[in-house]
Amino acid sequence: xxxxxxxxxxxxxxxxxxxxxxxxxxxxxxxxxxxxxxxxxxxxxxxxxxxxxxxxxxxxxxxxxxxxxxxxxxxxxxxxxxxxxxxxxxxxxxxxxxxxxxxxxxxxxxxxxxxxxxxxxxxxxxxxxxxxxxxxxxxxxxxxxxxxxxxxxxxxxxxxxxxxxxxxxxxxxxxxxxxxxxxxxxxxxxxxxxxxxxxxxxxxxxxxxxxxxxxxxxxxxxxxxxxxxxxxxxxxxxxxxxxxxxxxxxxxxxxxxxxxxxxxxxxxxxxxxxxxxxxxxxxxxxxxxxxxxxxxxxxxxxxxxxxxxxxxxxxxxxxxxxxxxxxxxxxxxxxxxxxxxxxxxxxxxxx
Length: 351
What we know:
Layout: H1 2-24, H2 29-37, E1 63-69, E2 72-77, E3 86-87, E4 94-101, H3 102-107, H4 111-118, E5 123-128, E6 137-144, E7 155-159, H5 167-173, E8 178-184, E9 187-198, E10 204-210, H6 228-246, H7 250-268, H8 279-292, H9 299-316, H10 318-324, H11 330-346
Antiparallel strand pairs: 1-2, 1-7, 2-3, 4-5, 4-8, 5-6, 6-7, 6-10, 8-9, 9-10
Helix pairs in contact: 1-2, 6-7, 7-8, 7-9, 7-11, 8-9, 9-10, 9-11
């Protein structure tokens, strides 16, 4: 009862104070309350210096400072009060990367990019929102920038602009494919740069497309091949194909797929062939088996391995590459790897 009386007394006191202020201003109580709600923060009982300070995000600045600790790092922006850097929280997700050109990717020679990932001159990627959907991603690229005045023991990074003279801009301008290498140096992911869009400050947003198999590589059961020699041979060729996929070696993928096709055909064709039979000869025999309606392989497998044969011929004869005016793209080579997975699934080596 006493608590209820106290509440009533407080309400009456507050009402009286408001009424008195309203009379002093020659206003009704209702109009006074409405006007009070529209007053500046200081007249509403709120300190004006308590308003939220909106600071720029890492996407909004020309550069930032990076400090590294024990299995951690911090990002500081040079835009604080009195030019004092302030800490960005939560810490942005930054990813190490290295640029590699089309020639390096086609040849599988990624040692330079892998060396950059291990060193101190790597790029940093910052994922930014985009409307393309997976598996594409949009990133800002930051590079080491010595022009920023940095606090002690920090590394400085600047946002890449379209006016900067970098190899990837040169390749884009000439219509050449370019790639970013991320991940661990010896087991890295490859991303193709498919577009570059500058904002009004010339800071570029790059759209990337993954160059990899979407579901990884399965583990075939080669013990289902009764001939132990051909079983071991097929297993070795599959291992070579796996290594070529991981290394983004387009020519290695095609060569391994061709050798794997020969081993599978030698093992599972009804009619036996000399060990030195070419892939073309083995596929001719498969076509005859399919025409008779009795084969371990499917018609789709036949067409996949024919594609492998044609691409393999182009890798063995550089003159044909010159005649067509292009070499094997990494994405096209990956379709060969996908195709060989389908072939082995159809003959029961992959579940």
